[in-house]
Write a structure and sequence with these properties.
The complex is a heterotetramer. Chain B is 73% helix and 0% strand. Chain B is mainly alpha-helical. In chain B, helix 2 packs across helix 11 (224-248) and helix 9 (185-198) packs antiparallel against helix 11. Chain B is built from 13 helices and no strands. Chain D is of the alpha+beta class. In chain D, the strands form two sheets. A three-stranded antiparallel beta sheet of chain D has the order 2-3-5. Chain D has a two-stranded antiparallel ribbon with strand order 1-4. The chains are: A alpha/beta, B mainly alpha, C alpha+beta, D alpha+beta.
């Protein structure tokens, strides 16, 4: 399947959800979607294992814009189809795609701890990368992250000695 | 009563030569030879001659850390008991081409079980120290012991049957100049391989597989205890090699020939060690019970039939 | 934690890591075992998390390049190349053909290095130290080649934005070819060993088997996927740098067990040798670098590369300055990690290190904060204090 | 296991018995470093124009260019070896080829950081550059 055919296929698969699919680069499609349509769109893209979820990128559009954008990159051959979901900054939540794609668990855990985005229904909401004693409510990849908030507390745990 | 012959000599034999210090020193030398050979076979340079000695000295100097949940008395006593067992075993085995200082009917069985005492002590020590890795190591150590012990004994049984005695000195007297390794090839091979199991050398090092369970039963041991276990291991190596050499490679010889024989034996052990990947514990058990024991019994049956026909 | 009292009724949990002889890098796995059989597994990463993605938001593109090279110690070149390519894409600049060919050359040498290293690690986990020692001895040859070519044994730093730093002289090509001949001969010998050594096969054949279906569901990448019969190699699917000119043969196996993973990696080593010869024979003439603007125009770009371990994914957003707005790195290990947890269950404890090693994990890739431990009880370090401490320490 | 053989590495292993070990005896036997090795930074003050690109691009802030007087070509270079990552970006950034990385000076390990802080330039330039607040109007560049 050539990349052109893949682009046509991806457009066809996403047609029920949006007609705003744009070609950002010869091998890249952007599909901005409302958050409710994330799951059905993801299901359509991976149906028959046509593509796989490469990763989930969280981006902070900044406190002024008041939004996060979560990018779900689906790869199929050379083509990357990015499903872009915008969510409000004051109540950031996306549904978990783990029901469809079990391997997404690590990406969702990363998204949760780095941006403080609530991933509803993810099987394991524990921290993945950040230390256990990282302060609650401090999300390092947010644009307004203040390093001084992240005091590092080293507790002496008798059970660990 | 000759004071020297009856009192001083046994004490010397027990503490200095051929038991005691001599066995410990020889054990360290053999450990080094083994390590060096393995290194050279892997195209590495290997440790310098004093490395095992330096290791043991360093361990003796180090602080010994006793785990909170372990019974301290047992923790300290087990390495001593294990080492004592091995040193006692050394009194019944001809070392350095000389006759063993002590001998009585049935000493072969006692020697084999004294050698197992060290393994048992390591097992108990691991169980006592209650670490996760130790506990997994213990189950493996003991499982492995139950698997190689029978074939090892069966392999040693064939010279015993042919010589019609359980006394090491008498078997050797029979084996003198006969080189039983050619007439009992299966037993010889099984004895060598079982010895590797006893010494927990690769491919039978699952009980202390560092990539899985760190150091197995000895994980929690640091200072003196570990040094004693190391010394015991070295002594076990010497005694095991000496026993198999004496039984299968033409009985006692002069010290130089004995050294050459054991060196060849070490080379063989090292070669096998290098060429093999580690077996999982279930594979080890399967190997011994499925093939080892059966083959050893086949050898004995052949021997008995042969005896009957020849006789 | 290790010395907990274990009651018979309790679940027996064996912790592996963060410090464990099986893992040369820090990661924490908890294996619940029943006898010798693993019944559950969980992972905790982040012990080597360095906040590289955040760090990239406060450094210039040029500086970030070198930070990206340090995402991974073994495949440093692929990360450098990925970042160079993605920034070049953003800036609308293309590196000259000779530079692209040299990027491929170094990448393939790096692949040989990585795969030989992995064969050694995998063999060591199986207690087969002879294979470990010999493959690492031979790895020295490729490291020497890389050192002579790029100037360092690990962080090659062959890339600059818009090209490469190092050139291949005819004499250097000669040395490389000689080394590659030796390496290919050795790789064929190792192929023989991993395919036929009876003792080693007992530890690899039928262990950690992953079917093609499972591989696709778990989203594994790279040699791990190819060993399960997934024909997926970005060098062929989405050729980058000079790969359009130097096509590769995708190597797949169907068994999906550890043996297949060994075979795929060793065969890829041999394939890399072929590509290196081809690149050296057809090295385009010309410049090594092209002019690269310091400020990169606004936009976003994605680059996907085939690292020795699998697919590397780079996403960069720029806002028109000389600093990236957002850099996202997805390394192959994190894509493969889920498969380890999945495959471990039901296997023997002894097989877990091998299954873990089977994906060629790289924890520093995986974790991309600073922690200072103090022996004196509770201790609070603010980031400011920590920064101050760093400044003091390096004055 | 139809094709399985025992001891497939026998030839390698047994052959090594008579071979010299592959181990390098490094501190006793030194091999020459390749010509492209990236070691200690070497700065040529004669050709330097003081543009400061090297310091700007340095990913680890190991270089600092202090311009005492640009017209008179009075520059002072501060180099922190302990921060240097030997990436050679400074050499790549330099338009005058005034910076190179030595392939002779690479055995740089030491027990203290004392010898790791270099200030290069003419003695009076250095004195002026390091004096608190130069009064000739030129601001030292970071």
């Amino acid at each position: 399947m050539s990349t052109e055919e893949r682009i046509a296929e991806a457009r066809a698969r996403l047609a029920p959800f949006t007609d705003a699919v744009e070609e950002a680069a010869p091998d890249r499609l952007n599909a901005p979607l409302p958050v409710e349509q994330l799951l059905p769109a993801a299901a359509a893209l991976i149906e028959g294992q046509w593509s796989y979820l490469t990763t989930i990128t969280g981006t902070d559009l900044g406190p002024e814009a008041g939004e996060f954008e979560v990018l779900y990159h689906f790869s199929s051959g050379a083509l990357v189809t990015t499903v872009r979901v915008r969510i409000p900054r004051d109540e950031p939540a996306v549904p978990s795609v783990c029901g469809l794609i079990p391997a997404a668990s690590f990406y969702e855990r990363e998204l949760m701890e780095m941006f403080g985005i609530v991933v509803e229904g993810t099987p394991n909401p524990d921290r993945l990368f950040l230390p256990d004693d990282w302060p609650v409510g401090v999300y390092p990849l947010r644009k307004d992250f203040d390093p001084s908030e992240a005091t590092v507390v080293i507790e002496k745990d008798p059970a660990n000695d | 009563m000759n004071f020297f012959a009856d009192v001083i000599q046994p004490i010397l034999a027990l503490l200095v030569f051929p038991g005691g210090l001599f066995v410990l020193a020889l054990g360290l030398v053999y450990l080094w030879v083994n390590r060096k050979l393995v290194a050279r076979l892997q195209n590495r340079i290997g440790p310098r001659w004093f490395q095992p000695v330096a290791d043991v000295v360093r361990l003796f100097v180090k602080e010994e850390i006793i785990p909170e949940d372990a019974n301290p008395a047992l923790f300290v006593a087990l390495p001593i008991v294990g080492l004592a067992g091995v040193l006692t075993a050394s009194l019944y085995v001809p070392l350095f081409g000389m006759a063993a200082p002590f001998s009585y009917p049935g000493d072969l069985i006692v020697t084999v079980y004294l050698l197992s005492l060290l393994t048992l002590c390591i097992g108990l020590a691991g169980a006592n120290s209650t670490g996760r890795f130790s506990l997994v190591g213990v189950t493996r150590t003991l499982t492995q012991m139950f698997s190689y012990e029978a074939p090892f004994l069966l392999a040693l049984l064939s010279p015993a049957i042919i010589a019609q005695t359980w006394q090491i000195s008498e078997i050797i007297a029979y084996a003198d100049g006969r080189w039983l390794m050619f007439t009992h090839p299966i037993s010889f091979v099984i004895a060598i391989i079982a010895l590797m199991g006893k010494l927990e050398m690769p491919p039978f090092d699952a009980p202390e597989a560092e990539t899985e369970i760190v150091a197995g039963a000895m994980t929690e041991y640091s200072g003196r205890g570990l040094a004693l276990f190391k010394l015991g291991h070295g002594a076990e190596l010497v005694i095991g090699v000496a026993l198999v050499t004496a039984l299968f490679m033409g009985g006692t010889a002069n010290p130089l020939i004995w050294l050459a024989q054991t060196a060849v034996m070490l080379l063989v052990l090292s070669l096998v060690q290098v060429l093999m990947a580690r077996l999982r514990i279930d594979q080890t058990v399967g190997l011994w019970w499925r093939y080892g024991s059966v083959l050893a019994i086949v050898q004995i049956v052949i021997l008995i039939v042969w005896e009957r026909i020849v006789a | 934690m290790i010395n907990g009292n274990v009651k018979p009724a309790e679940k027996f949990v064996v912790p592996i890591g963060p410090q464990h002889p099986a893992l040369k890098e820090p990661g924490h796995f908890e294996l619940t075992i029943d006898g010798e059989t693993v019944t559950a597994a969980s992972a905790r990463l982040g012990y080597a998390h360095r906040g590289i993605e955040k760090g990239a938001e406060s450094r210039s593109y040029v500086q970030t390049l070198y930070m990206m090279e340090r995402v991974c110690g073994i495949c440093s070149h692929i990360h450098g190349t990925a970042f160079s390519l993605v920034v070049e894409k953003l800036a609308g600049v293309e590196a000259p053909p000779r530079a692209q060919a040299i990027r491929v050359l170094v990448a393939e040498l790096e692949r040989i290095h990585s795969h030989l290293l992995w064969v050694g690690v995998g063999a060591h986990e199986a207690g087969f130290d002879a294979l470990f020692m010999y493959s690492w001895r031979d790895r020295e040859v490729v490291m020497d080649i890389l050192e002579a070519l790029t100037g360092n044994r690990v962080n090659y730093s062959a890339n600059v934005l818009g090209g490469v730093k190092c050139d291949v002289t005819p004499e250097a090509a000669e040395t490389i070819l000689k080394g590659v001949d030796f390496l290919e001969e050795r790789a064929r010998q190792y192929l023989e060993v991993v395919q036929s050594d009876a003792m080693f096969l007992r530890r690899t054949r039928g262990v950690g088997t992953m079917t093609r279906e499972e591989a696709l569901t778990l989203g594994v990448v790279g040699p791990t996927a190819r060993a399960s019969g997934v024909t997926q190699d970005l060098r062929k699917d989405a050729p980058y740098a000079a790969y359009p000119d130097f096509p590769i043969n995708v190597i797949t196996e169907t068994a999906g067990d550890l043996e297949a993973r060994f075979i795929v990696r060793v065969k890829e080593t041999i394939e890399s040798c072929r590509i290196i010869r081809e690149v050296l024979a057809n090295l385009p003439e010309g410049e090594l670098t092209t002019r690269m603007p310091r400020r990169v125009k606004e936009g976003e770009a994605i680059v996907r590369l085939e690292a020795p371990r699998g697919e590397v994914f780079y996403y960069v957003q720029s806002d028109g300055t000389d600093t990236a707005k957002r850099v996202k790195v997805r390394t192959p290990t994190i894509a493969n990690m889920a498969s380890v947890l999945h495959l471990s269950v039901g296997h023997q404890l002894a097989d877990v290190p091998m299954i873990l090693a089977g994906i060629d994990p790289c924890f520093s890739c995986n974790d991309r904060s600073v922690r200072l431990t103090s022996a004196h009880g509770n201790d609070v370090w603010t980031w400011e204090k920590l920064r101050q401490h760093g400044i003091e320490a390096y004055r | 296991m139809s094709n399985a053989k025992l001891a497939t590495m026998f030839r390698d292993v047994f052959g090594s018995l008579g071979k010299k070990p592959a181990t390098e005896l490094y501190p006793f036997v030194r091999t020459e470093a390749p010509a492209h090795l990236r070691g200690h930074v070497v700065w040529n003050s004669e050709t330097c124009t003081g543009c400061g690109l090297c310091a700007k691009d340095c990913p680890s802030n190991a270089l600092e260019m202090i311009v005492v007087d640009r017209k008179a070509k009075r520059f002072v270079m501060r180099y922190r070896l302990d921060q240097c990552t030997f990436c050679a970006q400074c050499a790549a950034s330099c338009n005058q080829d005034s910076i190179a990385l030595s392939h002779e000076q690479w055995e740089l390990a030491a027990l203290t950081r004392d010898g790791y802080h270099f200030i290069w330039g003419k003695p009076d330039d250095i004195a002026e550059a390091l004096a608190p607040k130069s009064d000739n109007g030129d601001k030292p560049e970071a």
